[in-house]
Amino acid sequence: MYIKLDKLNIPRSKTGKELIGTREMAAFFTSSRSCVYLGMLICVLGYQAASSSAQDVSSLSLSYYDKRCPTAQQIVRKEMDCAVRNNPRNAAAMLRLHFHDCFVQGCDGSVLLDDTVTQVGEKTAYQNLNSLIGFDLVDRIKNQLEGECPGVVSCADLLAIGARDAVLLVGGPYWDVPVGRKDSKTVSLDLANTDLPAPNQNLVTLVSNFLGKGLSVQDMVALLGSHTIGLARCVNFRDRIYGDFEITSHNDLTSQAYLSKLQSSCPESSHDNNLSPLDYVSPNVFDNVFYESVLKGQGLLNSDQELYSSLVGFETSDLVKTYAADPLIFFQHFSDAMVKMGNITNPEGGEVRKNCRFINS
Ligand code: HEM
């Protein structure tokens, strides 16, 4: 089975160039009934038209490794199982690695490349530095794959399969992962700095970023449900807990206790790297509790709470309510969105790296 970007319902111009998200963007703003953002809309569409050619071809298939490396999926599952049992944070690490890979040049393993004398990698980008983890786990899985089928399974596919297994192993949904990605021979620190979303960005900026990648508003809200697992550093939620947290939350006893706890581990001006769970109710389980917390105004990151509390978030707040009420719809939309995100390919093609940290010599 081949899944092509055409199936993602992305509008195209007569030349075949995608006008990614144009219709979605218009719909989002219309539903937001906000004329204030018209100028920004024009700006965003201009940006999208200029940056949309990076997602041309996707010829991934579910059977790609059936003959080439029949045990590939089992090897990844076994290693992920072991790693997540050992420390559930490994599930969060793998899921985020796949996301940060796909949002920069497409899902091509570029996030995994180390700095060399000739190439600066993406690991020092604002959203990655002191934050992205899981590289050792990737090395372990890659070693096993190379032992069984040398030079066959790409690092980009390893991340896509690993992310699916990660979600499944902590109680989330299963989906079939189309495979056959190639690893890039290039990296882009600049793109990593511009394209990875940041927690202090507002809803309009976040939505336009996702639309620029061919992902809809629904995809974005569903994908953000990933914050049902994993941890965040104080530096990323300080503004929120000393800012509008009290206003968005119901200021009841539970919210107050939660806020005090957050503030005691994350003071106003130090301990930047202190960690707190993104979902304090069930931090190691992939469920829909994240949306329940956002509904209560208790989202940890400003970007999470924007989904529900932004003045222009009519569509997003409806989706938050839907996912909080129905975990199965959340699981279905999340799985669909993960496949879409995984289909963002790098049209330049590439190779199958022997070591995920370096291009083949
Ligand atoms: C609006 C878009 C997003 C923003 C602004 C955002 C931002 C963040 C931030 C700031 C952190 C904490 C990092 C730290 O403190 O070091 C984080 C963690 C995480 N994010 Fe996101 N994120 C977004 C979307 C996503 C998506 C789409 C996924 C997956 C598909 C994802 C998966 C994760 C996971 C699993 C963690 C926990 C990682 C860990 O524990 O090591 N995020 N995100």
From TrEMBL:
Gene3D superfamilies: 1.10.520.10, Peroxidase, domain 2. Heme b binds at H227. It is found in: Secreted. Substrate binds at P197. The keyword Transferase does not apply. Disulfide bonds join C69-C149, C102-C107, C155-C356, C234-C266. The record marks R96 as: Transition state stabilizer. PANTHER family: PEROXIDASE 11, PEROXIDASE 72-RELATED. This is Peroxidase. It comes from Vanilla planifolia (Vanilla).
